[in-house]
Amino acid sequence: MRPLSTPWSEATHRTGSEGAGAHAVPSLGSCALRSPPFFHFFTFSKPTSKLMSIAIANGHTVAVHYRLTLQDGTVAEDTQGGEPHVFTQGERTIPPGLERDLAGLRAGDEREVILAPADGYGELDPSLEQTVERSLFPADAELEPGMSFGAQSSGGVTPVWVKEVREDKVIVTQNHPLAGQSLMYKVRVVDVQEAAAKSAEPPST
Question: Could you tell me the residue ranges of all domains in the chain?
């Protein structure tokens, strides 16, 4: 794990109660801990026929409803009754195994997918944990386990999660909160849209 030596940006501070994540983390599978990447919501037209819909392929904008169940039986997320989750296929903003298994599906298709940790959020890696000074965080931040931050390091901004808070120290980790777990997704594809065509370059004068 690269050392985190510069103060944490308040602008990158996100708590577990914000946004759709958020899933950022992804994400699908961010559980109660919302994390990057972030997602945008679109208005989709309902296909008149499944045969008229297109199959999911890289670059397509996809809307799905899903239920995520953890290996202990806990339902971590369920979008039914709310807005569908929207992502772009091929951008790896959802677990790689889920993205792979959704390829080729069309609006109206349903699928149950069980992901091993390697196909979800990876195995737990103790070397990705680090104890840092409390002073590296925004002074007004009420730190709690599960909160996510963007840590500035030599390689850029890295997402990290608070694992434990002590009096003047904080244990942080780059392991996603769902790392090391098998994940079961029940997914229904709501709609698939092709990528918008890029506008032509204006002619040179």
Answer: 10-193
Structure token pair of residue 68: 């995520």
Q: Tokens 């979800």 sit at which residue?
A: 120
Rounded Cα gap, residues 189 and 112, in angstroms = 12
> In percent, how much of the chain has pLDDT > 90?
57
Structure tokens given for 133: 């000074």
Tokens of 70: 């953890």
Q: Are 44 and 193 in contact (CB under 8 A)?
A: yes
What are the residues whose beta carbons fall under 8 Å from the beta carbon of 26, sequence distance 6 or more? 35, 36, 37, 93, 94, 95, 176
**Quick one: pLDDT band at residue 16, thresholds 50, 70, 90?**
very low
117 vs 23, residue with greater confidence = 117
Residue 192, burial from CB neighbour count under 10 angstroms (0-12, 13-18, 19+): buried
pTM for this entry: 0.65
DSSP state of 9: P
Q: Which of 94, 76, 77 is nearest to 26 (CA)?
A: 94
CATH node for 10-193:
3.10.50.40
